[in-house]
Amino acid sequence: MTVTLLLPTVLAKLADGQEIEAQGETVGEVIADVATRFPALAPRLRDEAGNPYPFVTFYLNDEDIRFNGGFAARVADGDEVTVVPAIAGG
Amino acid sequence: MTATLTGLPGLDHDEILRYSRHLIIPNVGMEGQRKLKAARVLLIGAGGLGSPLALYLSAAGVGTLGLVDFDVVDATNLQRQVLHGTKDVGRPKLESARDRILDVNPNVNVELHETRLTSANALDIIREYDIVIDGTDNFPTRYLTNDACVLLGKPNVYGSIFRFEGQASVFATADGPCYRCLFREPPPPGLVPSCAEGGVLGVLPGLIGTIQATEGIKLLLGIGETLAGRLLLVDALQMKFRTVKLRKDPECPACGTHEIRELIDYEQFCGIVPGLAADGGNSVPEITPVELAAKVKRHDDFDLIDVREPYELDIARIEGARLIPLATLTDALRTLDSARDIVVHCRSGQRSAKAVRQLQAAGFRKVWNLAGGILRWSDDVDPSVPKY
Fold first, then answer.
1. N or C: which end of chain A has fewer CB within 10 A?
2. pLDDT tens digit string along A20-79?
3. Candidate from A55, A64, A90 with C-beta closest to B136
4. Domain spanning A2-85: which superfamily?
5. Which domains does chain B have, with CATH numbers?
């Protein structure tokens, strides 16, 4: 499956843009694909064991993946995965 | 002021004139305006987000505005904190805020809480208000505000910003999710830069703060669909707004399992160890700007490394430094000589402390951090170098 990973601007500089085409059958595989291609981005998306952080939330289209199996959530062609890191500025 | 059968305060003729553009909206009307007048809203933070919040909520006729802040206005605030003016630099933010609010609308009852919100005072302060608006600038206070609001059942209007991006939602409504449902735990200290370290577009808090003010007024009036159950993501660079679903997490320790029955130590929860650098690491060997200047004057043999970003060189620099941005330090290690003395600097000393730690981990033994960075260099050695 080909999906689009949407990054916040703060992480986009670690990849080659804010919208990245990536491959995989699940959100976890999509993230692994992106992590392999952009090693500098990898530690910002998931921990060393490949698990999601509690301070970075992933949305598959507009659903939080944690309510759909987490990284095991299955993706379809054309889906969008949005990365939402915690920010605290005010 | 005569209280009516509904228990809401009345409006005098001046107030009716002042709020006429509200009164003629069917969804607000006299009853809505009187609800606003009866309302008690607590703003946590009188900075970037707090500025538009305080201005619009007071203009809208919110009867009582509480403000929590303990900071003093400084020149770097003025680029976005429109509540404060140039004449206010050096004044406590709350004094400046009170003067401005009363100028906008003298009918507002302003309650000042000139203190840091802590686990010891949060429940007592928040208890006295109907809704809370979170305009703080750090993770510990955000988790503290969230947990206190969940414990007290007070809606918490959330907004957060960084550079060109913002987030907004409404937490802790009767059946709605809370901040911990969105982010169970904070990132480790130092991973996510603050606006002071990473910068923020000046109008961004205006954008997100007015969204929070809108949500606050809707909550008080009981109209429309609030952001409860949704997270609004704003990207000002692309000018894209989108909302995603925010679900109440049954495992959430605050609003799900309710295992959080009292406020905790939020500095510790956020990994901040008292007495250590803000980035949470162990202290590193330091050199003061005065000592560095003496070293330069003596023509000591050493390398000065600047770990800031290239665009920061245009703002200010210390002569003789070699630029190696922190993110590229690992790649540049082989170009450094561990036999030589190395002094590392950045703007404030935080990034360079990280760099010193990286160098130490790579086996460098003679490495020092310039304490206070360029800011203190400007204060103590060379005032011709601008502070930013």
1. N
2. 999 999 999 999 999 999 999 999 999 989 999 999 999 999 999 999 999 999 999 999
3. A90
4. Beta-grasp domain (3.10.20.30)
5. 39-269 (3.40.50.720), 286-380 (3.40.250.10)
